[in-house]
Amino acid sequence: MASPVLFGFLLLLTVALALVTGFAPLRRALFAKSLMPLMGRVLPRLGETERIALEAGTVWWDAEIFSGMPNWSRLEHFRCQPLSKREQAFMDQQVDTLCRMLDDWQIEQDREMPEAVWDYLKRERFFGMVIPEEFGGLGFSEIGHSRVVTRIASRSIAAAVTVMVPNSLGPGELLLHYGTDEQKQRYLPRLADGREVPCFALTGPEAGSDAAATQSTGIVERGMYDGEEVLGMRLTWNKRYITLAPVATLIGLAFRLKDPHGLLGGEEDLGITCALIPRDLPGIEIGRHHDPMGVPFNNGPIVGTDVFVPLDAIIGGREQIGHGWRMLMESLAAGRSISLPALSIGAAQMATRICGAYATVREQFDTPIGRFEGIEEPLARIAGMTYVMSATRTLTCGALDAGERPAVLGSIAKAYLTEGMREVVADAMDIRAGAAIQRGPRNLLSRMWMAIPVGITVEGANILTRSMIIYGQGAIRCHPFVQKLIGAVEEKDEAKLDKALFGYINFVCTRAMRAFALALTGSRLAGAPEGDLKRFFQHLSRFSAAFAFVSDLSMATLGGTLKRREKISGRLADALAWQYMAAAAMKRYIDEPKIASNYDLARWSAATALYRTQEALRGVMENLPNSAASWLARIVVFPLGARFRPPSDGLGRRVARTILEDREARIHLTEDIFVPQGDEVGLGMLEAALDKAVRAIPVETKMRDAVRAGRLERAPGYMLDDLALQAGVITSEEYELLDEAREARNEVVQVDAFDADTYKSLR
């Protein structure tokens, strides 16, 4: 009799609980008042600058990942904007002309670009790519802007940085979105044609990652400007790491504005403000250079002491006083998506092109080194990472061109694509081995290698971006309930708290059940687009649900302290980032021609992303301080164990062969870079040697077959050629073909050597 009684009791308890929690007025009366102070202690407290940073930009596919049920149809039918005819013509003409003018080795030695290059950049309006045509700019799309920077970066990192800064976070971008009509008419045409060279002074010795803590100040007072007394600001600042500062004519400046004398009739501390300052005003010290890892782009400090400017210098005029931090955060939300990711892709595609050719041309033991498994492994990583990086750039720029300003995804693109650059170039250096560490005109990789820390560090250092910004911003902006909970507590609105809290509880429970069910069934219950990659889409759906559950469990157990648990926050950022990058790679496969090499590259990208997502989530669960929460997470997310593995050796071999043997695939994978024609030292010479080596492959195969058949004796390559000719195995024309290939191989494996006087003069 005990069992029916117990069952009846549990049934009554369940019905009572359902009635209580299902009837909103009763639920609010019983729970809301007591939960309000508890939620106030659990939820993070946001300062004003932190709130502005978190609310910058928009949410897009990141919200789909946080939802636990991504709408793949939305991604499948989204169309990334292609280059316009005008943009493609600019790439084929002006950009390629610029690339032919650039000698990166000579720029490194001279420590500056030639005057002719500066003149060409200004004349062809490279500094005005984001400025609309009505103001004399080029008015390019975001993908057009990005691909221009990528191509230039494949030729010269210094030139790419010089071009990208005026088109990214800087006066032009800020004027477009916040400037007054008068400011736009005055400055934008001059910025577009290079009469004004801009920089933006944000970072100082006391304010790096915490830029809002700036000690740069402006005091509202009356003073003389251009011969008349006006109401203005007396500015004092000390800034460093400012790109283009040594050559800039127009300084964008971020500072804290104060009105101690009440001249504006409001509060004394008016907040972070942005202004445009001409270079030649009294009190400005400018022109000194930093040396960023030897990469010769203009970068340096700016100091201002008692510099007086009128209030009209404020970007957007008086109405924008105190709104500078919001301006900067919203502009960064877009800028991070373009410049440094574009530079990273230029380096990655260049490394892919170089290593694919070099590993075919370079022989050891009479075998191209790309055939050795030790080389095959990094080759696969180079090709696969280049594919997923390029896909991520395309999808992110597509969102920007569609009107989004995806702050979280922009931070992902910046951090993970610059890290991808580091991985790819490191692998390329290993493959080139001794040739990679000898500086000179022949070595294109060494200058990329030196530039890696620049991309990793600037526009938000990757350590900070990964450990604090990506997940911290994403959890509040992208989660369907967290921001509502924070708002309800701040407003002390019991009705809103009740609705948000019980919606949150329902969300956690449903995503936990979904994650558990998908884990038990191998993701087969998840809806996904039909096609070659269906199983990968299903697995990503599973991990989206798992991520949503683990994320909520982390927030519930750690509360407001989560933002200080940066290792856990960083792993959650890894999981979020790799899910987005996998989606981008699979979106690329859907949109491009269905060829075997693309299928292998997409599978490699997805398999890598799933494995890294799994390991990131495992890292979170194993380090939750609450052992019960850790146990629950492991049971829900991995009831059958962690079963995802990195790409198999077989798949890696096929991906490596993509850039070794499939010429069209190799060209397609590196379509954004500049490839010089002829036998120019560097990539041009390597490409020419590759063509000769490929033409010689059938002849070499014929000789190897003759050795196996016993018609020829084994001998080193150069001796075997002679023996084959004498034995009639090959013709004299084929012998000449082999000789040309061998000579070309010998030339491209050489490294630069300098006489003593030249060596002493090298920079």
TrEMBL record:
Keywords: FAD, Flavoprotein, Oxidoreductase. Its EC number is 1.3.8.7, 1.3.8.8. Its cofactor is FAD. Belongs to the acyl-CoA dehydrogenase family. It comes from Oleiagrimonas soli. Residues 199-300 form the Acyl-CoA oxidase/dehydrogenase middle domain. GO terms for biological process: fatty acid beta-oxidation using acyl-CoA dehydrogenase. It comes from the Bacteria. It is an enzyme of class 1 (oxidoreductase). Residues 102-194 form the Acyl-CoA dehydrogenase/oxidase N-terminal domain. GO terms for cellular component: cytoplasm. This is Acyl-coenzyme A dehydrogenase. Residues 476-754 form the Acyl-CoA dehydrogenase C-terminal bacterial-type domain. Pathway: Lipid metabolism; fatty acid beta-oxidation. SUPFAM superfamilies: Acyl-CoA dehydrogenase C-terminal domain-like (SSF47203), Acyl-CoA dehydrogenase NM domain-like (SSF56645). The keyword Flavoprotein applies. The keyword NAD does not apply. It catalyses: a medium-chain 2,3-saturated fatty acyl-CoA + oxidized [electron-transfer flavoprotein] + H(+) = a medium-chain (2E)-enoyl-CoA + reduced [electron-transfer flavoprotein]; a long-chain 2,3-saturated fatty acyl-CoA + oxidized [electron-transfer flavoprotein] + H(+) = a long-chain (2E)-enoyl-CoA + reduced [electron-transfer flavoprotein]. Residues 322-469 form the Acyl-CoA dehydrogenase/oxidase C-terminal domain.
